[in-house]
UniProtKB/TrEMBL annotation:
This is Long-chain-fatty-acid--CoA ligase. Residues 31-398 form the AMP-dependent synthetase/ligase domain. InterPro entries: AMP-bd_C, AMP-bd_C_sf, AMP-binding_CS, AMP-dep_synth/lig_dom, ANL_N_sf, ATP-dep_AMP-bd_enzyme. GO terms for molecular function: ligase activity, forming carbon-sulfur bonds. Keywords: Ligase. The keyword ATP-binding does not apply. Residues 453-530 form the AMP-binding enzyme C-terminal domain. It comes from the Bacteria. It holds the Pfam family AMP-binding. The keyword Lipoprotein does not apply. Belongs to the ATP-dependent AMP-binding enzyme family.
Length: 550
């Protein structure tokens, strides 16, 4: 028997039209570096998204199913593109502006992007790339920036505001199949070429509802979220879509992502929530320690993308800001787990739950797989690779324009689950604790050492700002940990003291303590602000680190 219910397609245009009509007064505020930020209501964003769609379809010939690239910061125009493109049936292709130029060129070619929307401030990045982007025919520039760098460029150049001016503020959005492509994002590609993940209207719609559930971010139109996580990093974790569903106000930092302007933004605009990777929160903490600011509006922060050091969580607790730990990937849209403790616990009892990666929502199933392919119990002890499946989890990668989707064996199980490459345990009550990326685990004499555990313990030392631990080759043990440490400004600590601290305060077993140490001025970061361990391993291999052996 089939149901008797209506079968309405879950499309982005429905989210947009809901947001502009029901939450028309909610706002997107973009930091400009000027005395006043730019403010735009959801109603205005809706009007401008319709105008943009008209311009792209009528002047630039953008068709359904066509990817259109954005090379943009987090700002109102990027939100307009977020809605206009999928609603008109095109595919929003966000480009990671921190990728090396040759990777960006490869990605644009792979997707065969014909149109690029770009912020004026990013033209110095785009202009030298254009000769290597043969598929690009149109460049649409928004916001301040010297346009003359595009003089003589092969593609046609348009000004965003001129292009959309005078167009109708309504668009007859096509009735799309919810399974068609709405957006795409390439993974950072630590090995091999980047891989394209293509989100459907349906996956984004369902994921947005999950973002809005109280067990996830649970925000309403009384909230303002500071969206630090870039719109090119897994759709800013789904926030732009989720906000239009419930009227959450957005505060967008544009290119002002340094700790000082972020602190100023928070003090002045008083967001109640924010989302970003741990390195952003580390930087902000150092900033407000040196130059105190009022962060008290920000009750709740979603932190993920890399393991959150418990010491960081504790430091923000003292500032009255609660960091809520979440795990996800480009392939998981990204919401995979979120660490809200179970009900009825004291603050002390909540702590061990808060530092886990959290629980799966109903839309995501997880399982742990051992080295022999066996499925492991949720007993809090059996460690294996995490595999996931669900309605907003990738089942394949984009095979290039005109190509079939690809399903590499090391990324998908035979029965279609996504192999995450993350290793961890799951407790009987469903809390996931990740110990490492499979490729970052340190295999010492047949035993595994968690690099994340060592890092977390080190970052709890008062003199340590950041610490990254990687496996390095060792004649006797196969691999041993190398600890690279960034000291806080003006702080001092010798290696023996740090090692002792790991053993005593950190509770690290003696055989796991690193004997190789290096003080560094900064931990290298990936394009999305995570520790870049492959760079550290390379620096070590090439003798580029001043290593002391204890
Ligand atoms: P990306 O697709 O670039 O966002 O990277 C996804 C990867 O980031 C995951 O597979 C994890 O290795 C890592 N990651 C994300 N969130 C967390 C977290 N909360 N704790 C530990 N690792 C994380």
């Amino acid at each position: 028997m089939y149901s008797t219910m209506q079968d309405v397609q879950l499309t982005i245009s429905r989210i947009l039209e809901h947001g502009r009509r029901v939450h028309g007064a909610s706002t997107v505020t973009t930091w400009t570096g000027e005395p006043e930020p730019q403010r735009r209501t959801f109603a205005e964003i809706g009007d401008r998204a319709a105008r943009l769609a008209h311009a792209l379809a009528e002047d630039l010939g953008v068709r359904q199913g066509e990817p259109v690239a954005t090379l943009m910061w987090n700002n109102a125009e990027h939100v307009e593109a977020y809605f206009a493109l999928p609603s008109m049936g095109a595919v929003l292709h966000t480009l990671n502006l921190r990728l090396p130029p040759e990777q960006l060129a490869w990605i644009v070619g792979h997707a065969a992007d014909r149109v690029v929307l770009v912020n004026g401030s990013l033209l110095p990045l785009l202009a030298p790339l254009l000769p290597h982007l043969p598929t690009v025919e149109h460049v649409v520039v928004s916001g301040p920036g010297d346009r003359s760098v595009l003089d003589g460029a092969a593609p046609r150049v348009h000004d965003y505001e001129e292009l959309i001016a005078g167009r109708p503020t309504a668009y007859a959005w096509p009735e799309l199949d919810e399974r068609t492509a709405a957006a795409m994002c390439y993974t950072s590609g630590t090995t091999g070429d980047p891989k394209g993940v293509v989100y459907s209207h349906r996956s984004i719609y369902l994921h947005s509802m999950q973002v809005n559930m109280a067990e996830s971010m649970g925000l309403t139109d009384q909230d303002t979220t500071l969206v630090v996580v870039p719109q090119f990093h897994v759709n800013a974790w789904g926030l732009p879509h989720a906000t239009f569903m419930t009227g959450i106000n957005m505060l967008m930092p544009d290119r002002f992502l340094q700790p000082a302007p972020l602190a100023e933004m928070i003090e002045r605009e008083k967001p109640t929530h924010a989302a970003a990777v741990p390195t952003i929160w580390q930087g902000l903490l150092a900033e407000v320690t040196a130059h105190p600011r009022d962060l008290s509006s920000m009750k709740n922060v979603t932190i993920g993308g890399a393991a959150c050091p418990p010491s960081l969580m504790a430091a923000y607790d003292r500032l009255g800001v609660r960091l809520v730990h979440a795990w996800g990937m480009t392939e998981t849209s990204p919401l995979g787990t979120m660490a809200h403790p179970p009900a009825g616990l004291s603050a002390e009892e909540e702590w061990p739950y808060r530092v886990t990666q959290g629980r799966f929502p109903a839309g995501v199933e997880g399982r742990l797989v051992g080295p022999g392919g066996e499925h492991l119990p949720w007993d809090g002890e059996s460690a294996g690779e995490l595999e996931v499946r669900g309605t907003w989890i990738a089942g394949a990668y984009f095979g290039g324009t005109g190509g079939d989707p690809i399903r590499p064996e090391d990324k998908f199980s035979e029965d279609g689950w996504l192999k995450t490459g993350d290793v961890g345990v799951i407790s009987p009550d469903g809390y996931l604790t990740l110990t490492d990326r499979a490729k970052d685990v340190i295999k010492s004499g047949g035993e595994w050492i968690s690099s994340v555990e060592l890092e977390n313990a080190l970052m709890a030392h008062p003199a340590v700002a950041e610490a990254a631990v990687v496996a390095v080759p060792d004649e006797k043990w196969g691999e041993r940990p190398l600890a690279t440490v960034v000291l806080k400004e003006g702080a001092e600590a010798d290696y023996a003291t740090l090692r002792e601290f790991l053993a005593t305060e950190g509770g690290i077993a003696k055989w796991q303590l690193p004997e190789r140490w290096a003080i560094v001025s900064a931990v290298p970061k990936t394009s999305v602000g995570k520790f870049d361990k492959k760079v550290i391993r390379k620096q070590y291999a090439e003798g580029g680190l001043d290593v002391t052996r204890l």
